[in-house]
Design brief:
Largest sheet of chain A: 7 strands, mixed
Low-confidence stretches of chain A: none
CATH class of the largest domain in chain B: Alpha Beta
Number of strands of chain B: 8
Radius of gyration of chain B: 19 Å
CATH topology of the largest domain in chain B: Ubiquitin-like (UB roll)
Helix content of chain B: 25-40%
Structural class of chain A: alpha+beta
CATH architecture of the largest domain in chain B: Roll
CATH topology of the largest domain in chain A: Aldehyde Oxidoreductase, domain 4
Shape of chain A: globular
CATH superfamily of the largest domain in chain A: Aldehyde oxidase/xanthine dehydrogenase, molybdopterin binding domain
Strand content of chain A: 15-25%
Mean pLDDT of chain B: 91
Oligomer: heterodimer
Number of helices of chain A: 18
Strand order of the largest sheet of chain A: 3-5-1-12-9-10-11
Number of helices of chain B: 6
Distance between the termini of chain B: 60 Å
Chain lengths: 770, 180
């Protein structure tokens, strides 16, 4: 490619081991639940047993009498200011005041000397409820006879979106072929292996919260707002986080409740969810009901698309307004078309609230669209690979909803996936029961706008070089939740400074010691936090070169630094070590510090919701999978998956590949097994890891991952995202492979064995009847 | 087993029995006083400060609390501390000898098999038990041995690679990871 800047980098582009690898393999790494503080209490939350009920009374007197119970709190002890991660709708209270809105809604909390006493205390709190009729079916939620969940949201409509770009009706009229399909998604849960934990403590008027969070900043912002504290008096920090995937992005009752309990008792309070409570707190993937109509010309070129969706939001907004917009917005990325209409209703139900899960709103619509496109291809007799290559987005284009796409190797990804998977040798030639499918995906490299309105930069960083130059510490608010941001940001810092990775140290994700950063969501850190780190590193490098020039009495412009050595490209006799120069700087001028910050350019159109889906850069991916179906049982055995990614310049190939594996694994689980199920009272039927089935090592197919050359002008060194993008194609890819194998279309997720079996049975019966 | 039978009454009723148990944890002799319902995982984490053993579900589903009990991998959340009386226990803190990483630990770092790291201690102990009884396992044997350890980050690809590398056997996934 013409704009690819190929350089010989010293540190980036290398699979250095993770900076925290040793701590994590020895058991030394401490997660929030591993922290112990002197005089610490344990706290638990009492939750609602009803999906919808009025609270008549709460009697805590018996609980308070139990020895070892130090505090029992309800809404009367908590601020009543409503909150929510999304300022579009602040609709949650720390503890319910009048009504409970789902099984698991927070009613009271206790702080006790140990965990066992907490359970005794919870059992002794007497809450009198008047059960109310509940809304459990999202498709009926807007009907007149349904109970109203939030009085201010008529007919339980949480968000209503109507976006119209170009002229879809005209496109359908002009089209050679128009087809409509309807698909249903599944409610899934992020399921990090580490349960949510927060430990809160006060020092006078200053609150410190250790939390298993993806974003110390948003927690700090909302905790300060809720308690009327200056941000400077709220310190939120994390130690190690055991996975998030979107589920640890927003404050929970653990931080708010813990802060109140810690204030009342004057002692540190550790609050935690068990596995069932995690499922109840939820904030996982919305179930979406998706009808898509597309018109294509005789070659299969897409002329217009209408997406008409409903999503089950659960009892609160969470991040769901953004989810609702993302669901439609991201459909325009991988294929080029000019006419697009998007209608969406996000409805409230008396079920746990849904939020942002890996791929945020986009994976289910992507499944629906990729399945729909295969249906069209089949109807028109076009190879599914060909129809995708024909429509593939090109670089330097603009989507109908006004997203500017710089680098884009969609076509190259498809072509490489075609070649690697042996598509042309397999398509239509595999034995019965075997099939091959293809799908695409694209995702943002950081959201163009923050979650609440602010002019703060999106990322900032600071590098402090040690006084003798033998180490440098990167201070960043970026949040490593396992994806490896601490490692890649240290690589980036070292590259920019002309230093070595091995000498880097890091202090991250602590609102008191590290500069502001919005945290780990929307696949933003490599590009956005990375841009701030690069700037900080370059500022160190500039000061180093000026100092070296003084020391050597040599022009600055003729000097460079690489891997800890100062040198002159034209004069081999001129050398100094990084340490010598850094020490000289410190002795003469004090601390050697570099700083940087990053604010994205102004992005997006002027229409309502235009901000959601904007990003400085988009990743692109194509996946091909080969499956084998057991005709007796409907069992889907995924044999191989080929993933080809366009994610710009790669900082750490091993960690990048690991992200692809993990995203694909998550997509596999959501495709075939994972689904949160409810009984007719709105209670979760499978809130545990044996019945909510995430794939085990025995379920994982063979993964072949590859990259295409790509350079993103908007990213530092040309980087883009990878963490979420690889989740997007997977569900559609499997559906299409099953479609190819058996000719049956599974129109709802998960593509479970029973559904496949039933579809095959229906197909046989129809065949017999004809 | 010694029982501390305290007949004093408390405000909450008769005092529950306490038991004195002896464990050898990572080679260290340890004596702890526990209630009858104390779980091994909580004794390790709360009493002995061995927090490398993680809690993910407390139902025996996730495998995060896997430790070796007389050489056998067990979910420490399903074992009563009383049942472990007199046993030898190895937790993740006991795997590296004198600060030197064990070959499995080194392989996990080397093969990028660690992401969030929360499943890692249990995963390494399950793998240790496997290799102790079967030094050169096949890839399906590796997968079966860690099937009780759930990981949400890695898709197990690099974990299988790491165990295979430590065992000096070839994993199919290694051949699969071509392309770049």
């Amino acid at each position: 490619m013409s704009d690819t800047v190929k350089q010989d980098y010293a540190v980036i582009g290398k699979s250095v081991p993770k900076i925290d690898g040793r701590e994590k393999v020895t058991g030394a790494a401490r997660y929030t639940a591993d922290l112990k503080f002197p005089n610490m209490l344990y706290g638990k939350i009492l939750t609602s047993p009803f999906a919808h009920a009025r609270i008549i009374s709460i009697d805590t007197s018996e609980a308070e009498k139990i020895p070892g119970v130090r505090a029992v709190i309800t809404h009367k002890d908590a601020p009543t200011l409503k909150y929510g991660i999304s300022p579009a709708r602040w609709d949650e209270n720390i503890f319910c005041i009048d009504t409970v809105k789902f099984v698991g809604d927070k009613v009271a909390a206790v702080a006790c000397i140990d965990e066992q006493t907490c359970y005794k205390a919870l059992a002794a709190i007497k809450v009198e409820y008047e059960e109310l009729p509940a809304v459990l079916d999202p498709l009926r939620a807007t009907e007149e006879d349904q109970p109203q969940i939030h009085p201010e949201f008529v007919r339980n409509i949480n968000a209503e979106i109507h976006q119209d770009f170009g002229d879809v009706e005209a496109a359908f009229k002009e089209a050679h072929y128009v087809r409509t399909d309807t698909f249903v998604g599944n409610r899934t849960y992020q399921t990090p292996i580490e349960p949510h934990t927060a430990t809160s403590m006060w020092d006078g008027e200053k609150l410190t919260v250790y939390s298993s969070t993806q974003s110390p900043h948003y927690f700090q912002y909302y905790i300060a707002r809720e308690f009327g504290l200056p941000m400077g008096d709220v310190r939120v920090l994390k130690t190690y986080v055991g996975g998030g995937f979107g589920g640890k992005l927003e404050p929970t009752g653990l931080e708010f409740g813990g802060a109140i309990l810690a204030k009342i008792t004057g002692r540190p309070v550790k609050m935690f969810y068990d596995r069932a409570e995690m499922f109840a707190h939820n904030r996982g993937r919305h179930r979406q009901y998706m009808t898509i109509t597309s018109g294509v010309d005789k070659d299969g070129k897409i002329l217009g698309v209408h997406a008409d969706f409903v999503m089950d939001g659960g009892a609160y907004t969470s991040l769901g307004i953004a989810t609702a917009y993302y669901a439609g917005a991201m459909l325009t990325l991988t294929y080029e078309f000019d006419n697009f209409r998007f209608d969406m209703l996000r409805v409230y139900t008396n079920l746990p609230a849904c939020g942002a899960q890996r791929g945020h709103g986009a994976p289910q619509p992507r499944y629906a669209f990729e399945a729909h496109l295969d249906n069209i291809a089949k109807d028109l007799g076009i190879d599914p690979m060909d129809i995708r290559i024909l429509n593939a987005r090109r670089p330097n284009t603009t989507t109908p909803n006004e997203f500017l796409v710089n680098s884009c190797e969609m076509k190259a990804c498809l072509e490489k996936a075609r070649e690697m998977s042996g598509w042309d040798e397999k398509k239509g030639k595999l034995p019965k029961g075997r099939g091959i499918g293809v799908a695409t995906g694209s995702f943002v490299s950081g959201a163009g706008y923050p979650i609440y309105r602010t002019d703060l930069p999106h990322a900032a960083a600071m590098i402090k070089v040690g006084e003798d130059g033998t180490s440098a510490t990167l201070y960043t608010g970026a949040t490593d939740i396992g994806q490896g941001s601490d490692t890649v940001l240290c690589q980036m810092a070292a590259e920019a400074m002309g230093y070595t990775y091995e000498q880097m140290k890091i202090v991250a994700a602590d609102t008191e010691t590290t500069p502001h950063d919005f945290g780990a969501y929307a696949s933003r850190q490599t590009l956005m936090s990375g841009a701030a780190v690069k700037q900080a590193g370059e500022e160190v490098k500039t000061q180093m070169l000026e100092t070296a020039a003084e020391m050597l009495d040599f022009p600055t412009v003729d000097l460079d630094i690489r891997s800890g050595k100062v040198f002159s490209p034209g004069n081999e006799s001129v050398t100094l070590t990084f340490e010598e120069v850094a020490r000289h700087f410190f002795v003469n001028r004090g601390p050697l510090v570099g700083k940087g910050s990053y604010t994205p350019p102004k992005l997006g159109g002027k229409f309502k919701g235009a901000a959601v889906g904007t990003s400085p850069a988009y990743s692109f991916a194509a996946q091909v999978s080969e499956v084998e179906i057991d005709e007796e049982t409907g069992e889907v055995n995924v044999l191989d998956v080929w993933d080809v990614h366009d994610c710009g310049t790669v900082i750490n190939p091993a960690l990048l590949e690991a992200q692809v594996h993990g995203a694909l694994f998550m997509g596999l689980g959501e495709s075939i097994w994972e689904e949160v199920k409810f009984d007719d009272k709105g209670r979760i039927a499978n809130p545990n890891l044996s019945e909510y089935r995430i794939p085990t090592a025995m379920d994982m197919p063979v993964v072949h991952s590859a990259l295409v050359d790509s350079y993103e002008p908007a990213g530092p060194w040309g980087v883009k995202e990878v963490g979420e993008g690889a989740t997007l194609p997977t569900m559609g890819c499997f559906r299409n492979a099953i479609f190819d194998a058996m000719g049956v279309s599974i129109n709802s997720l998960p593509l479970g064995f029973e559904k496949v079996w039933r579809a095959m049975k229906e197909q046989r019966e129809e065949g017999a009847a004809e | 087993m010694e029982t501390i039978d305290d007949t004093r009454k408390t405000t909450a009723g008769p005092k529950p029995k306490r038991y004195v148990i002896d464990l050898t944890v990572n080679g260290d002799p340890r004596t702890v006083v526990v209630k009858g319902n104390a779980l091994l995982v909580n004794v390790l984490r709360d009493e002995l400060d061995l927090t490398g053993t993680k809690k993910g579900c407390e139902l025996g589903d996730c495998g995060s609390c896997t430790v070796l009990l007389d050489g056998t991998p067990v979910d420490a959340c399903l074992v009563l501390a009383l049942e472990a009386d007199g046993s030898e226990i190895v937790t993740i803190e006991g795997v590296a000898a004198h600060g030197e990483l064990d070959r499995l630990q080194a392989a996990f770092v080397d093969k990028a098999a660690v992401q969030c790291g929360y499943c890692t201690p249990g995963m390494i102990l399950s793998a240790k038990a496997l290799l102790a009884g079967n030094p050169h396992p096949t890839e399906p044997e590796i997968r079966a041995a860690i099937a009780g350890n759930l990981c949400r980050c890695t898709g197990y690809v690099n974990i299988v690679r790491a165990i295979a590398a430590a065992a000096e056997v070839e994993a199919v996934v290694e051949q699969g990871g071509e392309a770049r």
